[in-house]
Known about the structure:
It contains 1 helix and 5 strands; from the N terminus they run H-E-E-E-E-E. Helices cover 43% and strands 28% of the residues. A hairpin with a 4-residue loop joins strand 1 (48-51) and strand 2. It has one helix spanning 2-41, and strands at 48-51, 56-62, 66-70, 77-81, 85-89.
Amino acid sequence: MQGSANLVSSILPLVVLFAIFYFLVLRPQQTQAKKHKAMLLALKKGDKIITNGGLVCEVVKPEDDFIKVKLNDEGTIVKISRDYIAKQIDDQK
């Protein structure tokens, strides 16, 4: 009886530590990744985005793996990978 109680008291801190790690680190990362993926899937023509490189672009045509974007007012259109889109910005100024 004393051996099993000793085992439980030695494992309990590890379980508590894992639970704290899960709720403070893993779960917020998972929810942020889900929101980012949903944002990427919801992009449509005319949306303003920022790339990981800091470029502000306007979506011209979303495709499966790439997105065609307009870089400036002169109409320079390039294709970028969905992996390099950092966030969507609101054009409410």
